[in-house]
Structure formats: structure tokens, C-alpha cells
Amino acid sequence: MRICKKCNCEIETPKAWLWRKYCPTGHRLLDEAVVRSFWGSFARTLVGTFFLTAAAVLGVAFNPDFVGTAAQRRRFEEGVGELFGFVLILILLAGVRAFYQAKAWNKRGGAVQSLIPRVRGKGFGYLSAAILLAIYLGPAFW
């Protein structure tokens, strides 16, 4: 089942055009409109965020093509640490945004309230991924 966030109504079978889904009034339904459980959303967000971020940061950090003097390598390593800190801040902001969205939907009421567990799971997934990344990868870069 999907929920249109603009109409605040449940949609059993949305209209489809190519791969896109629409509500009967014409609003586009994204993947966020699917009703999921807290734990399903939490697991997907945690695993996806953790592995994508770790792969990107570690791919930059252990770049075998980098050649330069010792001073250039040291500056490059400092830049990787700054990149890692920036990515952690973005992940934390995504988690805070998810909690803000859940709070707004809770005030709004209606069918959109069935999306709140999904958004809260997403928020806790982002925060957990940021904490795990800071614990496991943070000491390597700072």
C-alpha cells in the first residue's frame, strides 16, 4: 500500500506510467510513500548508509594512484579526515530531518501517520550508522 503525502490518502493500486507511480489526483508517489515497518526501514538505512559511506571514504583514503612528496601525502590524509567529518555531519542532518518529518506528520494526522514508523526507523538508522562510523573509522582519520 502507498500513501500520497500531499492528498493524505491511502492508495491500493496507483496509476502507473512507465516506471513512475501516481495517485488518482496526479501526484507522483516516490518510494518513500510505501508503508514499511520500523525495523525494516531501520535495517535498510543502517546497512546502506554504513557500507556506502565506508566504501566511499576508504576508497578515497587508500587511493593507490596518489603519488607525491611526504608533505603532500600528509595534507591528503588530513583532507580525508575532513571529508569523513563532513560526511558524518550530512548523515546526522539526514537523521534529524527524518525525525522532524515524523513530528510534522504526527501533527498532521490522517493516512500519512502510517508512514511515521518508517521515517523514525530511517532516522534511527542514520544516527546509528553515524555513530558506528565514528567509533570504527573515526580513530583512523583523526
In a nutshell, what does this entry contain?
It is built from four helices and five strands. It is mainly α. The longest helix is centred in the middle third of the chain and has 39 residues, at 70-108.
Quickly list its features:
142 residues, three-stranded antiparallel β-sheet, elongated, two-stranded antiparallel sheet, 2 domains, mainly alpha
Mean pLDDT: 85
Order of helices and strands: EEEEEHHHH
Radius of gyration: 20 Å
Q: Count every helix, treating DSSP H or I runs of 4 or more residues as helices.
A: 4
Task: Report low-confidence residues grouped into runs of 5 or more.
Answer: none
Helix content: 55-70%
Q: Assign an overall shape.
A: elongated
Total separate domains:
2
Number of strands: 5
Ends distance: 45 Å
Biggest sheet, spatial arrangement of strands: 3-4-5
**Biggest pleated sheet:** 3 strands, antiparallel
Structural class, by secondary structure, is mainly alpha
What percentage of the residues does DSSP assign to strands (E)?
Answer: 5-15%
Please describe what this structure looks like.
- It is a single chain.
- With 142 residues, the protein is mostly helical.
- It has four helices and five strands.
- The longest helix is centred in the middle third of the chain and has 39 residues, at 70-108.
- It has two domains: 1-34, no CATH class; 36-141.
- 62% of the residues lie in helices and 10% in strands.
- The model has no long low-confidence stretch (mean pLDDT 85).
- The chain has helices at residues 38-61, 70-108, 116-136, 138-141, and strands spanning 2-4, 9-11, 15-17, 20-22, 28-29.
- The strands form two sheets. It has a three-stranded antiparallel β-sheet with strand order 3-4-5, with no helix packed on it.
